[in-house]
Structure formats: structure tokens, C-alpha cells
Design a protein that fits this description.
Elements lengths: L2 H4 L11 H4 L2 H11 L4 E2 H7 L5 H14 L7 E6 L2 E6 L4 H7 L10 H13 L2 E2 H8 L4 H9 L3 E6 L7 E5 L1 H7 L16 H4 L10 H16 L3 H13 L5 H6 L7
Antiparallel strand pairs: 1-3, 2-3, 4-6, 5-6
Helix pairs in contact: 7-9
């Protein structure tokens, strides 16, 4: 952006001190990189601590007026106290024309993944989609919007009031669906609690249970052959003394 032109008296806009005029391209770039989330005035001030809110507000207002010009395809808006860049309404018909010949088969795997998440979970926010996928979905959302497969449907009433997404009417035409009820059933992973449940054994009949109980009882009462052999070896290896004889027996010399 030409800050000298924006800051000149001929532009019809209030002039800014040189220190603030140098911030304009920086603030412009920060808001652009923030994407759909935008930036609050407090976030911008955290980067430029030497500036007051009033000074930063002047810069933002100057940027907003600059992007209102017909020569700009974007505009700087403030929604819910957050500044962000959005495409002007005049751009959308041409964006739709750009992708009018694109079919669902030409969508990338990532775009199909995002589209599926919206179809099965709408209305849903970008942050919720990102949490499920583990990566940013901002670019995919813009591509799906440009192809008129999804649309925004308001804001979630939470901090930042993020946009909600749903599939568009064109989505049903592209995939040949009458409603979302026609979507194939989605296989879901087992619940967390199910992962820790022990598998249940098959039920036994009364005769099988009685036979098993009898075998276990007999096995516990009958000493094993290995146990008997071990006891015989102990008796063979030493003389067995009665309790009274143990007290009277002479001690052997260790040497």
C-alpha cells in the first residue's frame, strides 16, 4: 500500500504522524495473516505497545476508508470487535463463475474431508473443524465457498462470534441428494468408555456350568503328582523327628 498517497492531504483523509503512517502496512499485514479470525484492537496493541488505542484506532480507520474505494476488491470490516479483511460482495459472482465448471470429483481429499464434516455436523465453526482434522481448514473453506458448495449461516454466540457453516443448495444438486437424510451412514468410532469394557463371555448352559464347577472342585481337592513327589524327596533326604525329639536333639558342630 502506498502510505504516502494515503497520508497526503490530496487524498481527502486526515494526515497521520510519520510514526503512525509507518505502522499501516504492518497492521495491514497482521490483519491479513489472521484470516477469518481477524484481530481485536487489544491484540494489535499487544504488538505495538508504544502506541495508544486511540492512535491505533486512527490507523485502522484510515485503512478501512482506503479499502472502501472501488479500486479495491477487499474491504476492512469490524465484526464483534475484531478487524478482518473480506472480499467485497461484487467479487462473489465472478468467484462462482471461476469454479462453475468444477465438479465434486475434482475436489481434493482435504476439501472433501472438510465438506463431509460440514454436511454431517452443520452448523459448525472453522475452529471445530480444525479440532477434528488437526490442521487449519481456512483455505479449504474459502475454496468450498467459491465453488458454492457451502455457505455461512450466522454466528455462534461465543467469544469472537465465529461464523457457522452449512452446505448450500448447490451441494444437493452436485451430489444428487434431496436432503441430508440421504447421506450414507457415517461409521463412528466406539465411545471412550467402550474401549475399557471387558468382553463378555458367552453364556453357559446349566449342564455346562455344573460340569465346570465339578471339575474345578475336584482339581482343588486332589493334590498333584508333582507335589507328592516333592514331599517324598524331602522325607528321604532327612530324618523326620517328633516335636519332643526336636527339643532333645544335640546340636551339630558346623565344622
Amino acid at each position: 500500500m502506498d502510505t504516502e498517497t494515503m497520508n497526503s492531504p490530496a487524498s481527502g483523509q486526515p494526515a497521520l504522524p510519520n510514526a503512525l503512517s509507518r505502522l499501516m502496512p504492518l497492521i495491514e499485514g497482521l490483519i491479513f495473516t489472521a484470516g477469518e479470525d481477524g484481530l481485536s484492537l487489544l491484540q494489535i496493541q499487544s504488538v505495538f505497545e508504544e502506541c495508544s488505542r486511540d492512535e491505533l484506532g486512527q490507523v485502522l480507520e484510515l485503512l478501512r476508508r482506503e479499502y472502501q474505494k472501488d479500486s479495491r476488491g477487499m474491504e476492512l470490516v469490524r465484526y464483534g470487535g475484531r478487524w478482518k479483511f473480506v472480499a467485497k460482495e461484487s467479487v462473489f459472482p465472478y468467484a462462482s463463475r471461476l469454479y462453475s465448471r468444477a465438479h465434486a470429483s475434482s475436489l481434493s481429499g482435504a476439501a472433501m474431508e472438510v465438506l463431509s464434516l460440514i454436511a454431517y455436523n452443520q452448523p459448525i465453526t472453522r475452529v471445530e473443524i480444525d479440532e477434528i482434522r488437526g490442521v487449519s481448514s481456512e483455505v479449504m473453506l474459502k475454496k468450498l465457498q467459491a465453488r458454492d458448495l457451502i455457505e455461512t449461516c450466522g454466528n455462534r454466540e461465543t467469544i469472537g462470534r465465529p461464523l457457522l457453516y452449512q452446505v448450500s443448495s448447490a451441494f444437493y444438486d452436485v451430489f444428487g441428494l434431496e436432503s441430508l437424510a440421504d447421506l450414507p451412514e457415517c461409521e463412528t468410532p466406539p465411545a471412550v468408555n467402550d474401549l475399557f469394557e471387558r468382553p463378555q463371555k458367552p453364556e453357559e448352559s446349566a449342564d455346562q456350568e455344573a460340569a465346570r464347577t465339578s471339575e474345578e472342585k475336584a482339581s482343588n481337592e486332589k493334590p498333584s503328582s508333582s507335589s507328592l513327589g516333592h514331599q517324598e524327596e524331602i522325607h528321604k533326604g532327612r530324618e523326620v523327628l517328633e516335636p519332643d525329639e526336636i527339643l532333645d536333639a544335640p546340636l551339630k558342630d558346623p565344622s
